[in-house]
């Protein structure tokens, strides 16, 4: 049953639509709609402008005919219409050439006659002149446009003929200029061959260009979207692997791109590295605790077992066992606290991102406190090269903790000369603090290991002095967490000098960080846990 549920769950998780299909579909739809709207606008604009030109052509023919026929005072008839037309027009109607061979004839034609000849000789133009009884009295071709009822003096009508495209019919009333009476009608049919050819070609080319452009841009969008989605798929695959195995070291490969996806992958890798460090810290903590607590627990268990068997009746053994158990319990308490400090020291950037400390003030306070606690030691403080306003980005209690660890370490390993020298100075925007003792010193071999967890130069003597081998590890973690450096210079039999250094904050940067820290405190955000 469990396997079936797992299979169903996996199938459910894999049922999802592709992001590439979604994005490409949206882009294609957007491009298609845009091209359709653009094409409709262009087609309508060209059609409207060209149609206006055709209306003007038809209107010129109508006006020319009206000009020729308006001089007639009676109803239009064949007998009075034909004489009113020019000789050239009659010649065309009779099948003759457009231009007569006689120079005198050409000179006798006026401007109206020339315009009429030009108009009715257009193969697209069909003219019909009707009398008041709707009888044809003049036509310029085999097909005469029909007269329909219309209102007003002139009317334009666009007719769509299947297979032949569109044509324009113009209806106009003719009134005599002599008595202003209605004497007939003129109907002009314009086949608009050029218009139909232009619109047909325009529609065809727009369709071809639109289809080609849509396919081209869809293809381009596919590769663009794929280029964006593939890194997301890689990121998702890495996230799944890490989710399945939190201890996995798999990381997102370098995307080799300078954009938000590269920034995202880098941030996720940093986040995974931090998570891995936390997991490793937890493992180390559990391992260290189980290892280091084994001895004190065994000692306490041994003393309790001895007391249970026969020691409770012997006051001397009873006191000795109780003292030993209390000593081991106290060592366990300090050990656990130090291990917690060590683990938390690796999370400084979360707990104290904006902390600012005045180095001068902390040094004076720590030196004074340590001199009071260890009054048998001569603790000297030299800050001649340290400006009073020197500030670093560090929580003050953590700087105190580092100094106390180094001073306490020097006191533990001091021999005959009970003296600790503390000095500080600033050089090239770096503040350096030195803690020097005159004790046993550290060998070259041990200098590379003293910052390791639980490492003791002399395990027997350190155990006697109550050390667990974690102090210098805590100091090193704290210093490195605040982007500082710690080092040691030592000669066996002459003593050791520990040096810590941090970048000095400018006045403007210090004020900015202090402002952010104050705002954080006002919001009651979690403060440090190492103080």
From TrEMBL:
It is found in: Membrane. Keywords: Kinase, Membrane, Phosphoprotein, Transferase, Transmembrane, Transmembrane helix, Two-component regulatory system. GO terms for molecular function: phosphorelay sensor kinase activity. Residues 226-280 form the HAMP domain. InterPro entries: ArlS_N (IPR041610), HAMP_dom (IPR003660), HATPase_C_sf (IPR036890), HATPase_dom (IPR003594), His_kinase_dom (IPR005467), HisK_dim/P_dom (IPR003661), HisK_dim/P_sf (IPR036097), HssS/ArlS-like (IPR050398). Pfam families: ArlS_N (PF18719), HAMP (PF00672), HATPase_c (PF02518), HisKA (PF00512). GO terms for cellular component: membrane. The keyword Methyltransferase does not apply. It is a multi-pass membrane protein. It comes from Lactobacillus kalixensis DSM 16043. Residues 288-506 form the Histidine kinase domain. It comes from the Bacteria. This is Signal transduction histidine-protein kinase ArlS. The chain crosses the membrane at residues 20-43, 202-225. PANTHER family: SENSOR HISTIDINE KINASE ARSS, SENSOR HISTIDINE KINASE CPXA. Its EC number is 2.7.13.3. The keyword Transmembrane applies. Signal peptide: none annotated. It catalyses: ATP + protein L-histidine = ADP + protein N-phospho-L-histidine.
